[in-house]
Amino acid sequence: MKTMNKIFLSILWSTLMFSSFGQEVVIWQETFSGGIPTNWLNEEANGAAWEYRGPNTLPDLTVGSRGSCTNNFSGDPLHSSSQNDGFVLFDSNYWDNDSLPCTANNIGSGPVPGPHLAYLTTPSIDLSASSYAALEWEQFIRFYQGTTRVEVSVNQGVWSLLHANDVPVASSSENPQKKRVYLSNNILGNSDVRFRFVYEGLYYFWMLDDIKILEISANDLKINSTTYGDFDFVDPAHPTGYEWMEYSIYPTAMAPTLKFSAQIENWGGLAQTGCGLNAQLFSDVNNSLLYNGTTTDLITIPVGGSAEVRAGQFTMSADTGNYSILYRTLQNEVDEVIYNHLDTAHFRISPCVLARDRGIVNRIYEGSTVFWNSTFELGNIFLPTYDMPVSAISVALGDNADVNATLKGKIHTFQYGDSLVEALIAETPLQNVNLNALNAPGEQAKFQYLTLSDTVVLQANTPYWITVESSAGTNHLPIAMSHEAELYTSWIKNSDGYFYLTQIPLIRIQSCMDTGQANPDTTTSVTYVDWSKWVLYPNPTEDVLFVNGIQAAHGLKYSVIDVTGRKIMEGTYNTSHGIQVSSLPSGFYQLMMVSEKKKNMLSFIKK
């Protein structure tokens, strides 16, 4: 293993030293900042049209669909990167039915009844100088029947399918959902290329923004997501469905066996060979390297292809503290974009807390105003692997909570099958909202503790649904949310039934008041902590290194880590003087930046 590590590190070092550090270049883009451009074609067979929502339109950019199947004809808008400039949408629900109720009897009662066939076509784009390129856009779709697709035409030729969206019937995509399609050789090298976005069908809508064509690198392997769990809801080896979920905080009695894996994607213009994953586990107490594992069976990933790669496993000891994982992709080619193939994850081993959230408030669950006057429960599924005593449930609430709202914590057993089965086994007394423990997006979460009257022992290897319930009435109880939830692992129940959540509520269970912060935050998932604005420059560097994008540098600590995982330099960051690295040998290094609310790993090259 030592020989393998030395060979890998040598390859990684030389690869990065001679990398061209390629960056993707925007060849062409449209953000719809002033509406739909006049040189775009906006066509629909029956007279409907794609619409623009902007800051000065009516309705404006705060409104998505205005059809009947929305809340008061005001659906959610597209939350795109440039949402403040506006976006475009085809609103099939509105064109077919603009009056209540949203029922089958009203289908076809709108100004332009469906089904619809709508085209939004770009002007001619010159790609004659492009060797490797991709079309990207951001979208939000809710769909009933038909297709939403992108077509391409070269040199005024026939239209051919480039991409078709896959959205289940009566379901929605993420908001926003970012799409990327690689352009083939028969498209590239031509001076007259057009794309058109086609809505064909009936109900509900397709929203678009930030459409661009990027000149991409030949070799670029990217990490899309990482995990140290092994969750697979449909695996027959998981009898309850909830085995091997990833937790951000483990009690000592549940010290985990970590299973390191990543979903990686070839973002380059050429197939990537010898692809795999390296994972390094560190103790944050002294930055000691506990594990260093690499994929044993390397693979080839075609252009636009993706794969899961694994880097072994490691059984943790029951030592309390914070831990960090550094993931990096491997490949035979020289990766020309050195930043997107690295990722970090963080977790904590606690005396007594079990949590799935990452401690940072990603967004606030508001809930529809339809349910503000009725009771609802919202929470996470947990599967303790030992008989776990629980004395309290903790929850992070949104900063716009009603001062008169009340809440309580509840513990249910839970079974997922043909129908959901849950049985209440304990609940806390009703409490008022703690106004000193409210949260805004981007903050390190502050928790309100809901204490049980008597300690409850949860049985080992049994799923539990741990919830917070709002009392009936008109009071508003927003819940802080963390990162993306695995399917069927977080749920809400209201008067309409059960619905699974796409984000994890910041709701935990605990047998004591462990207040240690894990700061379990990752670069691939948290949206409000914008690591993309933390940029090292100059990079590569010969003597001094600066960090651009830090909003406040007071008290910001840094550590420089070499490729073996050894901390070789540390200090407090100074925005005026930067970090002096002239004494370092030439090579590849990690810079760990740490503050009270943020922790991030950045890469740099010392010439």
SSE blueprint and pairings:
Elements: H1 2-17, E1 25-30, E2 41-44, E3 51-53, E4 87-90, H2 92-96, E5 116-121, E6 133-154, E7 160-164, E8 171-172, E9 177-182, E10 193-215, E11 221-227, E12 249-251, E13 257-266, E14 272-283, E15 288-294, E16 299-301, E17 306-315, E18 321-330, E19 342-350, E20 353-354, E21 363-365, E22 376-382, E23 388-395, E24 397-398, E25 406-416, E26 420-427, E27 431-432, E28 438-439, E29 448-458, E30 464-470, E31 479-484, E32 490-494, E33 497-500, E34 503-505, E35 507-510, E36 535-537, E37 544-548, E38 557-561, E39 567-572, E40 579-580, E41 587-594, E42 599-606
Parallel strand pairs: 12-19, 24-28
Antiparallel strand pairs: 1-10, 2-5, 3-4, 4-10, 5-10, 6-7, 6-8, 6-9, 6-10, 11-13, 13-17, 14-15, 14-16, 14-18, 18-19, 20-35, 21-31, 22-30, 22-32, 23-29, 23-35, 25-26, 25-27, 25-30, 31-34, 32-33, 36-37, 37-40, 38-39, 38-41, 41-42
Compact overview of the structure:
The chain has 607 residues and is mainly beta. The chain has two helices and 42 strands.
Q: Can you describe this structure?
A:
With 607 residues, this protein is mainly beta. Helices cover 3% and strands 45% of the residues. It has two helices and 42 strands. The strands form nine sheets. Strands 1, 2, 3, 4, 5, 6, 7, 8, 9 and 10 form a ten-stranded antiparallel beta sheet that branches. Strands 22, 25, 26, 27, 30, 32 and 33 form a seven-stranded antiparallel beta sheet that branches. Strands 12, 14, 15, 16, 18 and 19 form a six-stranded mixed beta sheet that branches. The longest helix is centred in the first third of the chain and has 16 residues, at 2-17. It is globular. The chain starts with a helix and ends with a strand. Residues 1-22 and 523-532 have low confidence and may be disordered.
